[in-house]
Amino acid sequence: MALIDKVPGDLNLFIGGMFTLRRRDALQQANITHVLSVLRLPLDQDLFAPFKHMVVEVDDVEDENLLEHLPATNRFIQEGLDGGGGVLVHCAMGKSRSATCVVAYLMHKYNINVSEALDQVRQARSIVEPNEGFMKQLEMYGQMNTPDNIEETPAYQRWVYQREVELSRACGQAPEAEKIRFEDEHVTDQTPSFELRCRKCRRPLATSQFLIPHTPTTMFNNRTNKPPSDCAHYFLDPLSWMRPELEQGKLDGRLECPKCNTNVGKYAWQGMQCSCSEWVVPGISLAKSRIDESKKSAVTEIRRPPGMNNL
């Protein structure tokens, strides 16, 4: 395997590890003008003196957020290529972090999926293997259509919120109030097919696009040898009418209809087991016995701004 590996195609794009930087003759022959370092290590700045240099300080661990840096690394790579030079993307071993950035660039430039981009990079460097967390981020990046501004993308915002919930759960705490994402306060392009109403007062509580699907297990109960019962809950995202309860910082509690104060459900940030035996984390649910489901009218509804009693 060469110490400086060129991604196949017309691009002067290269991938490698730290030792690649010491191949001065090879770098000069490849006309390298830009170097992207994707690692968190003390770097010998003398190695980068001839080049325009960008550093993304991330560790090669699955819970590292490399996704947020991809638009910037794409721009840096494109800048180098547009200037007529070559671009070297490296991490410690040229295997995971650098590969993730190169794959993301190819996805963005050529509108290809993760597998196609990864196969192309492996033709240059067979050892590349983004860790599982980075692979999931690349898949999400593709699903978001490789946007130039990730932070404004609802899917990314939701992903960051889920990470915050997981971190809080690992610490045995509820998420901080300002970090809870109330889904109905964000624009959605989905059209609800039905809504859920309080059975007592008929107050609308949720619509279909805020439900969290979960797959009931097909395993039998070991003690009774009977299949699990049907789901008794609707699991859903946090909604703005729940704000007074969810922002109290409690790990779990009950949810009351904001109109008639009837107990309509419960929540548990650490997760909840449905009657079908499936675990949902976090668990925010409405009890089917307290809720009526009704189809939405075909008439187009006007979505009200946040804070105006949205569902």
From TrEMBL:
What range(s) does the Tyrosine specific protein phosphatases domain occupy? 67-125
Q: Which InterPro entries match?
A: Dual-sp_phosphatase_cat-dom, DUSP12, Prot-tyrosine_phosphatase-like, Tyr_Pase_AS, Tyr_Pase_dom, TYR_PHOSPHATASE_DUAL_dom
Which part of the chain is the Tyrosine-protein phosphatase domain? 5-147
What Gene3D superfamilies is this protein classified in? Protein tyrosine phosphatase superfamily
Mention any one GO cellular component term assigned to this protein in its UniProt record. Answer: nucleus
Where's the active site on this chain?
A: 91
Keyword Chloroplast part of the UniProt annotation: no
For this protein, the parts annotated as crossing the membrane are none
Keyword entries, A-Z: Hydrolase, Protein phosphatase
Q: Could you cite one Gene Ontology molecular function of this protein?
A: protein tyrosine phosphatase activity
Which PROSITE patterns has this protein been placed in? TYR_PHOSPHATASE_1, TYR_PHOSPHATASE_2, TYR_PHOSPHATASE_DUAL
EC number(s): the record gives 3.1.3.48
Family under the similarity heading:
Belongs to the protein-tyrosine phosphatase family. Non-receptor class dual specificity subfamily.
Q: What is the protein's given name?
A: protein-tyrosine-phosphatase
